[in-house]
Amino acid sequence: MNKLLAAAAMALLAAPVWAAPKTVTLSVPTMDCPVCPITVKKALVKVPGVSHAKVNFDKRLATVTFDDAKTTIDALTDATKNAGYPSTLAGNAR
Ligand SMILES: [Cu+2]
Description:
Number of strands: 4
Oligomer: single chain
Mean pLDDT: 88
Number of helices: 3
Bound molecules: copper (II) ion
């Protein structure tokens, strides 16, 4: 019985390893006023699978946390593009 519980607990703990959320940084160069980040953030959190989005206006960057089983980086850049702000993957976060 205890062994079974331990195995179940281990399975639960191990699950996030393969279902781990992914975080990427997007470059959003066309944000030109302090209201833009709000629009970009709203567009990103609307994408299914996105759990968190943080937009840095000074650096023109958006940091997005998402479930890569539910969405893709392409879907994220499409979302910002459709909101009027084309974005690209910044740096080497893959
Ligand atoms: Cu603006």
